[in-house]
Design a protein that fits this description.
The complex is a heterodimer of chains A (292) and B (185).
Chain A (H helix, E strand, L loop, with lengths): L1 E2 L2 E2 L2 H8 L5 H12 L2 H21 L13 H4 L4 H9 L7 H21 L12 H17 L8 E2 L3 H12 L14 E10 L2 E9 L5 E7 L15 E5 L2 E8 L2 E7 L3 H16 L3 H13 L2
Antiparallel strand pairs in A: 1-2, 3-4, 4-5, 5-6, 6-9, 7-8, 8-9
Helix pairs in contact in A: 1-3, 5-6
Chain B lengths: L11 H21 L2 H17 L10 H20 L3 H4 L15 H15 L2 H11 L5 H8 L3 H20 L4 H7 L7
The chains are: A alpha+beta (292), B mainly alpha (185).
């Protein structure tokens, strides 16, 4: 098919989907597609698949890196002798001459490389509670600002959501009732937390202010976890968080609230955990609504 | 001076490489479908990239450079693992599959992950580099060391295969609403 002498082929369709067409061709493809709903639907589907791919994998971008994927981990390990070896063309030598070369370089390296500060550096290991909080902050920043898909499950399916999250976290997950503070449940989603599943519950007040509660199960297994029930506070880039450990769970409550508000909210959540009467009442109420 | 990293000594290349790691990780995970194997691949590429950082020419595209390294490592690994691959395919019984089919969206997403794995490797690579990584076709051609024409045909075939897999995929609930898009003649 041609439009204004421009022939359109499959490559142009792909480039159209990817936004890699020059404007002129782009207009031609749009004109072509306008008359062909089936082809147009195919383009939409390609685009949708690309979006889905992002939904599925973009979370990886925000996962903290394991030590073995951090450059610091490798700094100093090879740099001080391997690189000079390669420069001198010695890397390909067999072991014995290489050992001799290394011995020579060691002497030079000890005075040179050492002086440069390129000695072995033990990568600093972050305490689990801190990395847990960092994950929670990342997830908050990512989804609390999201107007399109802030949650995987809306509050209208709270029942299903909690069931599913409980199953994935391996422990019963409750959604605290924060109505007294003006916050209602928006919904929640499942997130990865260093290889363990974590849940994020989101709440919103009438001013469209959002707070999230980040929950990770199986916390007892994490070494050096914070003491039971003790609140820790952190603030970074406008997002404040209170995090604590409670039985098998680690919690982080996040929002652009001040310290006192956040602590008060965290306390309420903790109290509701202690008296689980609130949660079942709330879930059955929505279960009836949700069971269409 | 012990233990504290002096920023002044960090070579720029190393910083630039570090910035690529999350993207390499995302790509590797989508490519291999297995987080552990994906991180293994990224680690290999990272080690190789760091040890050759002096070969990188400043001013050129470091992302393309690192993706090229990762691709080469991947191709090598595949060659070595080819004979063992038969039984890797069998390990499909992931625990997540036990979740009841409550939500189409999740099901559908999983379907996409699975559908991606069903694509021939070369098509999957192109689809992911373009779709997920947002590379332009020239960059993809350079990373995979193939002509642009090949990029285009793999992209087209890969996307079309994905679309069909998703339309009449194994999960009945998710595909039903989508099947009106087109019934394949």
């Amino acid at each position: 098919m041609t439009t204004r002498q421009i022939s359109i082929d499959e490559d142009d369709f792909q480039a159209f989907v990817d936004g890699q067409l020059p404007p002129e061709l782009r207009r031609a493809v749009m004109a072509y597609l306008a008359a062909r709903p089936e082809e147009s639907a195919r383009m939409d589907e390609y685009r949708r698949l690309t979006e889905e791919m992002h939904l599925l994998y973009d979370e990886v971008l925000y996962e903290p890196l394991p030590t073995r994927l951090r450059v610091e981990h490798y700094r100093g390990r090879t740099a001080w002798w391997a690189t000079p070896l390669r420069w001198l063309g010695l890397a390909e030598l067999s072991l014995a001459p290489r050992a001799a070369a290394i011995a020579v370089l060691l002497l030079a390296g000890a005075s040179g490389g050492w002086a440069l500060g390129l000695h072995y550096i033990q990568p600093e290991v972050e305490p689990p509670a801190v990395s847990f909080n960092r994950l929670a902050v990342n997830a908050h920043v990512l989804y609390a600002s999201d107007m399109q898909h802030p949650v995987e499950f809306g509050a209208d399916r709270q029942d299903q959501m909690l069931l599913w999250l409980s199953e994935r976290l391996g422990q019963a997950v409750h959604a605290p009732n924060l109505r007294d503070l003006g916050f209602t449940l928006v919904g929640g989603r499942l997130l990865p937390a260093s290889g363990e599943p974590a849940a994020q519950l989101m709440y919103e007040n009438p001013d469209a202010q959002r707070i999230t509660l980040y929950i990770r199960g199986n916390w007892a297994s994490a070494p050096g976890a914070a003491h039971d029930g003790t609140f820790s506070f952190a603030s970074e880039g406008g997002v404040s968080s209170v995090y604590w450990r409670e039985g098998p769970f680690a919690y982080a409550l996040l929002g652009e609230l001040d310290r006192e508000q956040l602590f008060a909210t965290a306390k309420i959540i903790q109290q509701q955990r202690a008296m689980p009467v609130v949660a079942p009442e709330q879930t059955t109420a929505t279960a009836e609504k949700g069971a269409t | 001076m012990q233990g504290k990293l002096d920023e002044g000594f960090v070579p720029d290349t190393e910083h630039l490489i570090a910035e690529q790691i999350p993207k390499l990780r995302r790509y590797a995970r989508a490519l291999l479908g297995d987080p552990i194997r994906a991180d293994d691949l990224v680690q290999e590429a990272l080690v190789r990239g760091l040890s050759r950082s002096h070969l990188w020419q400043p001013g050129t595209d470091i992302r393309a450079w690192m993706f090229t390294i990762l691709h080469n490592v991947h191709v090598n690994n595949q060659r070595q693992r080819r004979h063992r691959d038969d039984y890797q395919e069998l390990s499909d019984d992931r625990p997540e599959m036990a979740t009841p089919a409550t939500q189409e969206r999740i099901l559908e997403m999983r379907d996409l992950a699975r559908a991606l794995q069903l694509l021939p490797g070369p098509q999957r690579e192109v689809v992911l580099l373009v779709g997920l990584e947002g590379m332009n076709y020239k960059q993809v051609a350079a990373v995979l060391d193939i002509p642009i024409g090949t990029v285009m045909s793999r992209l087209h075939r890969g996307r079309e295969a994905l679309r069909r897999l998703m339309a009449d995929g194994p999960a009945s609930s998710a595909s039903d609403q989508d099947s009106e898009v087109r019934s394949v003649p």
